[in-house]
Amino acid sequence: MSQGSQHGKWTISSSDDDDEDLPPSGTKTNKPHRPAKTTGGQGSASPFITVSEARQAAAVSQLNPVKYQSSPSLAGKRKKEVSDSSGWALSDTDDDDGEVKVEIKRPPSPHGRLYYIDEPEDFFESSIPCLNDTYRFYLNKVTGLDRKYNSGALHIKDILSPLFGTLKESVQFNYCFDIEWMVKQYPSEDRPVLIVHGDKREAKARLVQQAQPFPHVRFCQAKLDIAFGTHHTKMMLLWYEEGFRVIILTSNLIRADWYQKTQGMWMSPLFPRLPKGSSASAGESPTFFKRDLLEYLASYRAPELEEWIQRIKEHDLSETRVYLIGSTPGRYVGSDMERWGHLRLRKLLYDHTEPIPGEERWPVIGQFSSIGSMGLDKTKWLAGEFQRTLTTLGKSSVRPEPPMHLLYPSVEDVRTSLEGYPAGGSLPYSIQTAQKQLWLHSYFHRWKADTTGRSHAMPHIKTYMRVSPDFTELAWFLVTSANLSKAAWGALEKNNTQMMVRSYELGVLYVPSTFGKVENCFPSLPSSTSESN
Asked: Signal sequence: where (predicted)?
């Protein structure tokens, strides 16, 4: 099925983040990549590859490898430019009557290929790696990088390996799954796995069919009661012989997401089991992580998660130093408005950070892989609501307006990436939405991550932070599944008396006070990749 407009057609499929501009409830639209404008990007063509096309092509090509071609089959599609010189490249179709067709040849990607490169033998960890146990924030390994840039990074095979514990059972919360590939990442293919997903109808049937050869894989369907919501949370619950662990991450459970993209994760310590007879409040952390995780899991109202809720209650999570920030679908009033979404972030920043001298020069940075509808001008949501949250620092009554930089890859970034144009399949931004909010372009900055060697590994990671003017210190840092959308973060309704959230999301917040920092900021996280340019 295809969706048509004056700008062309594309296949209705699954995207990484739905919003109010999508088709009627129950239909998920796959959005082509609409990257940020490059410097002199008027002649640049946008990579017109949908998420499903890119991922399916990669899967097929992996089974039937072909030689790399300098002129990929996807090159040379016709494009037309927006007449307002915004730099967006729009798809052309064969049924646009009365229009002059202009052939614009897209330059080839220097690195992109139509098949996967196998990881080298020393890519995966053979012994316990040297990791940053203070912040426990890690990047994913990227195939094709110099080995030094993967030092301290993790692949899913590393995470699930016996190096971190003797795995008995696990839960995988995610948006997109390749069940066969996922099962192969486990050291043993018969340990029970529960899949928490948001698929419905045909998509759910396909997912269940994928798992037929694997009787140890079970399913839990997340309730999505509000239109256009998605189950976008990415979390692993790992139960070991030795204890329990939580991993909150940004990667889907498909090979492409663990291959040549920049991704991030927070990995908890190994939580030990509490002594029998411990009180209900035992094992709580200074950040109330245990309480908040249990509350998040309870929001699913799913019998399949009850045994996991009980297991968490039986473990000691007191070593946790991050705050949990989740989104769950619903309309919230009163004090419940601050339980989820960006108002939850605002409350934590109000309660647990302090004003910084000269903070008006400390920019807010948002970095994401998908953009939703935010209204005809910035006052509708971005500046009027979300920016107020991101600029909160303590209980100061005076709130200066610092710069806000939004990082999103340009067409040229995608073209020259390790994946080439197919990387655009994981950077969805619908054309109708983009044309309605051209004002957003003034916030854009290109993706750059030279310090970690990932400037050419397109970001699927989502991070938000408040940084010093010289980018050496952080007032706070958040890694999350939440993209730049009202569906993910929530939006105020009814004269600001109600908060409406459409999707499930999950992330963790770092603030200096929980890490024993008395100067109200800490050095930039060693693995942080959000450098503006």
From this structure: none
